């Protein structure tokens, strides 16, 4: 096994990655860097190229063009070495229902030809809180426990990088919170995590984020940097019949987007002056309560998704 320099440079460093499936350009000129101990969130609408990007970055799929390294190994030429140091959790739970948790982990340990198998499995059961359920059949576990088993399985060979593809889809909020506590514990030990998600609360727990739509990376940075990058101003308007109000407002000058949040409507726009004039007038006419609001990550993601949908449609793609 070839060892890559452990602490030298970014854990993922890719430039100009492209991938086509047939005539579909699924990933376009992707540049990305992930640092050691960083939790990096990957967001974007369904089918935007997240899984394809993750697979290229860990050497499972060869890009049509572009270059890069993962853990210091060349993504084109050294995929076997990358796989030895990466834990990959796919979207689909792929363990045996009729084996117990321990048997599933033992099977994975055999696949990796680990010498101290029993000790490694015991450690994994202990550190992910699975010890009390070690003898339970996997098929009878709830979604949260299955996902904990999947994490234990992809941590078994002590990878330095975790690639997690929507690891918490369909899992309840408490189990998701526990899962994220675990990710932060691993990151604090220097393990890097690239995780795709559709959940806003999870996005906010990442150190850095990338937003990808129709194969193009539209923004990357900390949550605050992504919010700032779109230069939106947002106001909150309270009142009755928010659906009708939203639809009326979307025709008005300065209003780029309206999103209902509980009993309030978030209204955002790029032209701050025009937006303020419109909203003050509407609030006065209809006796509504108007307040400036912080632009949230969710406001910004909805805005970017809408922009990219429009651009995609205009391009006739
Ligand atoms: N092996 C393949 N052959 C042909 N097309 C593919 C293949 N894999 C993915 N695609 C297509 O590439 C596009 C991007 O898919 P990908 O799975 O990377 O998106 P995603 O962002 O991970 O989506 P989701 O959020 O739904 O998981 C989709 O249009 C998908 O249908």
Automatic annotation (TrEMBL):
Record-linked Pfam families: ABC_tran (PF00005)
Signal peptide as annotated in the record: none
GO molecular function, one term: ATP binding
UniProt keyword terms in alphabetical order: ATP-binding, Cell membrane, Membrane, Nucleotide-binding
InterPro entries (alphabetical): AAA+_ATPase (IPR003593), ABC_transporter-like_ATP-bd (IPR003439), ABC_transporter-like_CS (IPR017871), P-loop_NTPase (IPR027417)
UniProt feature coiled coil, ranges: none
Stretches assigned to the ABC transporter domain: 12-239
Gene3D superfamilies, alphabetized: P-loop containing nucleotide triphosphate hydrolases
Stated name of the protein: ABC-2 type transport system ATP-binding protein
């Amino acid at each position: 096994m070839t060892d890559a320099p452990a602490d030298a440079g970014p854990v993922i460093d890719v430039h100009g990655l492209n991938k086509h499936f047939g005539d579909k350009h699924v990933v376009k000129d992707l540049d990305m860097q992930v640092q050691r101990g960083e939790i990096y969130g990957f967001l974007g609408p369904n089918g935007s190229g997240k899984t394809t990007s993750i697979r290229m970055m860990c050497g499972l799929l060869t890009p049509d063009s572009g270059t890069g390294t993962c853990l210091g190994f060349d993504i084109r030429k050294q995929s076997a070495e990358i796989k030895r140091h990466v834990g990959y959790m796919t979207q689909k739970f792929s363990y045996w229902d009729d084996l117990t948790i321990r048997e599933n982990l033992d099977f994975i340990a055999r696949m990796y030809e680990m010498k101290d198998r029993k000790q490694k499995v015991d450690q994994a059961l202990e550190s992910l809180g699975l010890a009390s359920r070690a003898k339970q059949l996997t098929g009878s576990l709830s979604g949260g426990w299955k996902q904990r088993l999947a994490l234990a399985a992809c941590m078994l060979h002590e990878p330095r990088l975790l690639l997690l593809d929507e690891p918490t889809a369909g899992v309840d909020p408490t189990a998701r919170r526990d899962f994220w506590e675990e990710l932060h514990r691993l990151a604090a030990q220097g393990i890097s995590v690239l995780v795709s998600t559709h959940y806003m609360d999870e996005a906010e727990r990442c150190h850095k984020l990338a937003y990808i739509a129709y194969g193009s990376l539209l923004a990357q940075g900390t949550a605050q940097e992504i919010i700032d990058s779109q230069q939106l101003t947002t106001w909150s308007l309270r009142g009755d019949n928010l659906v009708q109000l939203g639809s009326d407002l979307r025709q008005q000058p300065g209003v780029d987007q309206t999103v209902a949040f509980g009993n309030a409507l978030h209204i955002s726009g790029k032209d701050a002056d025009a937006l303020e004039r419109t909203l003050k007038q509407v609030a006065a006419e209809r006796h509504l309560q108007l307040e400036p609001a912080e632009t949230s990550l969710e406001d910004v993601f909805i805005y970017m998704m809408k922009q990219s949908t429009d651009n995609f449609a205009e391009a006739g793609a």
